[in-house]
Amino acid sequence: GETIGILGGGQLGRMIAMAAAQLGYRAHVYAPEAESIAAEVCGGFTCAAWDDTEALARFAADCAVITYEFENVPVAPLAPLTDKLLAHPRALETAQDRVNEKTFVEALGGRPAPWAAVNSRADLDAAIARIGTPGILKTRRDGYDGKGQWRIMSPADAEGLDLPAAALVYEGFIDFRAEFSVLMCRGADGDIRFWDTPENVHKGGILSVSTIPGSNLVQDQVAEGRALAAKVAEALDYVGVLTLEFFATENGPVFNEMAPRVHNSGHWTIEGAITSQFENHVRAICGLPLGDTRLAAKGVVMNNLIGDEVHDWAQILSDPANHLHLYGKAAARPGRKMGHVTRLILK
Ligand code: ATP
Ligand code: MG
Ligand code: MG
């Protein structure tokens, strides 16, 4: 088979590579870190910096098609790879900057939390005067798992904060009732499929649990979330899995952020849906027909295994409804995603 290139070497890349292997493709990971849990399951590995244009060119020459598992890849060095990068660089440019992302989604009729770009202390004061507290100050770029965020409960909190030397955005705090994510895949032919919508619980800014089906409140807001996701995918001429995160509020869904890639809140689809997000992502970028996204059980609960919590693997595995996924990371650090357990509800 042909080779699928994957930019980024973490667990999402690992699970894309495993789905690629199932369909007879070879995978080649490109990542700046010498240790890659994705490269471990791949035939090829290039360890080089994101802006190493020669290494990128050699990588591209080995790959029939290129995807990524991480939306913060610098876009400029990817320009020569664009014809192989089916999930368009424009999706990366939009999603890797929170201000671009919110502006783009607002233009499509989406509703984010009230927000303001912040480049100085005066901007922050003006943002707080207009939007109020509580709020969250976030770096525009490079944040994930709640990193690069500061909660501001009162104007005094803001005064006490040393402003980080990065472009920022201030968002009003949404008093949400629940969180959910719309998981969809768009094929190379424009075919759009949605998976069932997980209700997500975060702890300390990190996804902890996804439950399918979600509460009635969430289910009532899915149609509006899906309509926005389809508009985003079409506007970007996007191919592959796309995820939009929402806050479910009394007044309908509020857009949080998007991920133009496979997503942690879709890991349940490996056993819980007829076709997983990883398989459909590979099918999409390889120009193949998409698989059925319907539920394969009555319900599913996915729990992330985070940090150095100690688990009894034998006990988890002794329940026939559980499926254990370990990512093979050498060291457990606080807040690090080590694996997940998917529990199918069969009756
Ligand atoms: P990810 O790993 O999902 O990319 P991230 O670092 O980009 O995470 P966000 O999704 O912006 O972080 O925020 C993480 C979590 O913090 C959210 O899922 C939500 O629980 C909470 N949060 C973020 N922004 C807001 C907000 N404006 N109002 C209320 N809660 C928020
Ligand atoms: Mg994010
Ligand atoms: Mg998020």
UniProtKB/TrEMBL annotation:
Broad enzyme group = ligase
Pathway(s) this gene product operates in, as recorded in its UniProt entry: Purine metabolism; IMP biosynthesis via de novo pathway; 5-amino-1-(5-phospho-D-ribosyl)imidazole-4-carboxylate from 5-amino-1-(5-phospho-D-ribosyl)imidazole (N5-CAIR route): step 1/2
Q: What is its EC number?
A: 6.3.4.18
Matching entries from Gene3D superfamilies are given as: 3.40.50.20, ATP-grasp fold, A domain (3.30.1490.20), ATP-grasp fold, B domain (3.30.470.20)
The chain positions of domain ATP-grasp read 102-286
Q: Mind listing the UniProt keywords for this protein, alphabetically?
A: ATP-binding, Ligase, Nucleotide-binding, Purine biosynthesis
Q: InterPro entries, from UniProt?
A: ATP-grasp (IPR011761), ATP-grasp_carboxylate-amine (IPR003135), ATP_grasp_subdomain_1 (IPR013815), PreATP-grasp_dom_sf (IPR016185), PurK (IPR005875), PurK_C (IPR040686), PurT/PurK_preATP-grasp (IPR054350), Rudment_hybrid_motif (IPR011054)
Quote the record's binding site residues for ATP: 98, 138, 143-149, 171-174, 179, 202, 256-257
Q: Which reaction does it catalyse?
A: 5-amino-1-(5-phospho-beta-D-ribosyl)imidazole + hydrogencarbonate + ATP = 5-carboxyamino-1-(5-phospho-D-ribosyl)imidazole + ADP + phosphate + 2 H(+)
The superkingdom of the source organism is Bacteria
Q: Does the keyword Protein biosynthesis apply?
A: no
User: What GO molecular function terms would the record report?
Assistant: 5-(carboxyamino)imidazole ribonucleotide synthase activity
Does this entry carry the keyword Lipid biosynthesis? no
Role according to the record: Catalyzes the ATP-dependent conversion of 5-aminoimidazole ribonucleotide (AIR) and HCO(3)(-) to N5-carboxyaminoimidazole ribonucleotide (N5-CAIR). Catalyzes the ATP-dependent conversion of 5-aminoimidazole ribonucleotide (AIR) and HCO(3)- to N5-carboxyaminoimidazole ribonucleotide (N5-CAIR).
Q: What assembly does the database describe for this protein?
A: Homodimer.
> Which family does the record claim for this protein?
Belongs to the PurK/PurT family.
What is the recorded name of this protein?
N5-carboxyaminoimidazole ribonucleotide synthase
- Origin organism is Novosphingobium aquae
